[in-house]
Records
---
Amino acid sequence: MLDTVMQQAPAFFNPHNLVFILQAMGRTLGMTIVGCTTGFVLGMAIAVLRGSRSVLLLPLRLVAIGYVEVFRRIPFLVILFIVLFVIEPLLPGTSLLGIATISVCLLSTAFLSEIIRAGLESVPGRQIDGAHALNFNALQTLVMVTLPQSWKVILPPAAAFVVMFVKDTSLASQLGVIELTFAGKMLVNRGFSPLLGFGAILVCYFILSYPLSRAAARLEKRLAAS
Amino acid sequence: MPHLEIVSLSSRYGSEEVLKEVSLAADQGEVLSVIGPSGSGKSTLLRVLIGLTPPSGGEVFIAGERVDYSSRRSLKGLRGKMSIVFQEYNLFQNMTVMRNVTVAPIKIKKRPREQVERQAEALLAKVGMAHKQDAYPEELSGGQQQRVAIARALATNPEILLFDEVTAALDPERVNEVLETIRGLTNEGITMIIVSHEMAFVREVSTRVAMMDEGRLVECGPPAQIFDAPRQSRTREFVSSILRH
Amino acid sequence: MDYTFQFSEVFAELPYLLGGAVVTLEIAFISFWGGAVIGLGGALAKVYGGPALKKTASTYVTALTNTPALVQIFLLYYALPDAGILLGSMTAVLIGLVLNAGAYLTEIIRAGIVSVRPSEMDAGVTLGMSRLQLVRYVMLPHTAKTIYAPLSNFFVWLVLGSSLAALFGVEELTGRAINVSTANLRSIETFAVVAVIYVVLTVMASASLALAGRLMFRVRAKVF
């Protein structure tokens, strides 16, 4: 088996293949960045919405709760299929990468909104009371009182989530998006040994994920100490 | 022969010597208090005595018998005779009050459960905690937890009882209930070593008081000597600084 | 858009799909307990092991937690035959998931062991407990209580994660959903029903684990 790897290595690591793998890595990274950024923004909106007590927003709040609870309890693979089957007839011509990105955002928004909500709720109620007593409105309370205190609680699990998320995007290969995992499958289909093909892909994931997970661990340690 | 005899006991933490050749002795039933500024080695002395911190030199005798701190068997024998109450109570958070008190006698001394539970009820009544025997430590106040810890220490029927700043972590209004409990134990023939900052209490209950500073024993004598006529200037300094507050 | 939903064809396949849910739970169970054995060993190695053992355990955890399980299983499934080892798809999936679970559970259990309060250990030592009694009465109850909630969450994560088995042709819940939808061409309806089954499955798992935890360890675990 190793002989094959040695024999194929020069052909495998040719510039053409390397560019192909780097592009795939870029797509994996792209889905991660878009997914997590969207997830953070929408997740924040949902977390704030769930914390509001206005009766007018009640129906919206129920929808948000339903969405978060359901999407955290469905496998990502099933989300991918559902998005695919819903989007295809609704918006024909949407690219596979587009469908994968929508799925990724749906997943990250659900999980990140829970992480953010836990962070917002960690701020003691008497401080919110204090802000209200000083006549802060809801947005001022959020920006000036709640957020500055809750980011310490939010960041460590959010960073850990991003690390998980990089790996979750590998399932998008199922749709045919040429991200890292699909690139690996294509290389193996072109006749390269699976050990070489998938091995190289595992190394690429490691290169993306390891610095992130080290940073997440360091963040957790530092914020726990303070 | 003294009940507990400590001969030039030393201990080091890393390269720093935190206990420097301390010698002390206490007779059966004596209440020996140890005072001194923070970091003077008082708590280390107790931790070495009960075998939590290894000594780096010196010897300890109980009723004339030498304690071998490197032998597991000797340590087991030691802890059958000696108990400690910690500053932070150190109760087992996963056990009820009753279980905290009975786990050692039942599981380690293999005494019959019935008998141990009867004794535990009596001990909890003595420290005023009988009504809380099914509660968990987290449901109790600091003072209540400390009283349970005292009952737990007593349940092993110790001949020697160590108290390591047992009121230091408590709210001021909880201090008296714990001191009251200890005061109630002073006439039962148990030899006690009390590390405390409660000077009025120390003066009242102690038969002798030892003053420590920077890991050394400065002076040891009856409370009247230590508080009213200290022989060492360091003792005078410390006592007057404390009493001024 | 005039699409009419038709669930009747999906409901006809409900017994078949529920059978897939049982397979899903089986995969999750095996991965969990296999991973728990590895995780316990890994955690003990990381906390009490010598330098070599510590290094081995951390390398294992780092390598597996920083790469996707899917690609790891691709490697097992497609590369091992070149070395003369033929794995069935279910076997490859189970080995991959057990190894993965082992890595994550190493970290969870390690955190539990490290969280035992030194003060309680001191108290146990001074009461005369032997090393075994310290483990039995102080360490185990505390560790079990601390790791119970993360363990429960991890089990739910495994129920969801086991769906990747479908990509290797294993007929668990997602795999059977693919089969059904290819046959009846009612993809949205099929996957909607399967999504509901997953939600019910994980809610039931969380709820029963939370209840068991409350009875055993007085853990106030949240279902939602």
Note: DSSP finds nine helices and no strands in chain C.
---
Amino acid sequence: MPNEAVQQLVSIKGTPNGLLIQYNGHANSKTLVNDLNNKLNSRDGFFKGAKYRIYGAPELAATTLNELHAMCHNHGLVLSEIDIEIPQPISKPKAEPSLTSTKILNTRTHIQEKTHLIQKSLRSGTEEHFGGNVVILGDVNPSAEVSATGDIIIMGALKGTAHAGCAGNINAVIVAYKLHPSQLRIANKIARSPENLSERPYPELAYANEEDGIIIEKYNPNKRR
Amino acid sequence: MGEVIVVTSGKGGVGKTTTTANIGTGLASLGKKVVLVDTDIGLRNLDVVMGLENRIVYDLIDVSDGNCRLKQALIKDKRFDDRLFLLPAAQTKDKNAISEQQMKDLCATLKEEFDYTIIDCPAGIEQGFKNAIAGAEKALVITTPEVSAVRDADRIIGLLEAAELPDPRLIINRLRPAMVKQGDMMDIDDMIDILAVSLLGVVPEDEKIVVSTNRGEPAVLDEMSLAGEAYRNISRRLTGEEVPLMNLDVNDGLMGRLRKLFGFSK
């Protein structure tokens, strides 16, 4: 991983507080902008609505930085108001692999984020994105999509697609009263329902980790996550 | 002041035109004054299903463009003296030949004179759909017991809500009770569960529909047709009457009903 990062001109990292866009300031400004554009294009719309910050050393010329911001903006990214942690410039990758980042990733800091309350069902063809967490008082029907940078809680049936932690937060969870999704995504993990899905008359919770991907279990209110 | 009702579905081939023809005819036979408007410009069918194809002189676009007066374009169905009219679509134009505002104005004029203005919506969610719902006050959503049709109906209901046509009512068409019983077809509850709208009626699959469509005589006029009976019930429900759902139970209901229809039992 770190080696890869060295070679990349621009890297995009998901953190609990948003996307961290790091650049290698020694490259010329044009290639930097192009590289970011390619990266964002290759994830076509995936980062839409995510908060981001740009870090790197040395300082870029104001025009280049503005170009990078404009690029992010064009792809639907939102500049984060708060500083995103782990300002590890790519120029010195050998200092500390990622102790701090592991620590941050293991806490569910995003629960302090804004939580949206949606009092309707999402019907087929609707696509809703939220910065923060979302609670839906209704169903998410087949071929509807909901995504949030934090947790997604559905007080109804999830039959469409849900993407929690869509800015890269793998600690985000998806809870639904009836969890029958066509697809679940948490951070960069994707899972689909098994073919022979039986009715389960209890709420379920989906979480993810790096090793196993997405895991679904019966929702247990006494278990602290 | 009458009601303007749009019949829509999203998916094609689920029975919008057949339903429009049958409900319109059903309401006319209940003594209501009805006009049917075909907005499927370029792919008109309602005239064929109504058996009025050879009487078209002017069409919807002629009216909206001012080539003729509205009265001239309305085709009278002779089976119902002065109670049932059709405003046919143009076959040589496309969906952009009329604007949403023109549809609104047209519907406002029609509802002055008719108890029910029923609009046959084209398949899809593009301009044709937008035109069809522009002047409507109520919506009927048609679906068949297929996952794809229900998915599209769900999308349509979302779009209707966004267009401030809330609480559409659902008609489930071409249901085959025997297949539902075997678990091979979605049942009514499955569909209501996903769509979360009120049910106006269930129309069973009926071969007579094919015959009546080809002949241009809506099945609702056929006393022997099961689908016709379902459409008669739906028409009565539209007038506000409370009519229980038809018994489509396979064992005794359907057979018993058939026997009754053919006069083999009391």
Note: The radius of gyration of chain A is 19 Å.
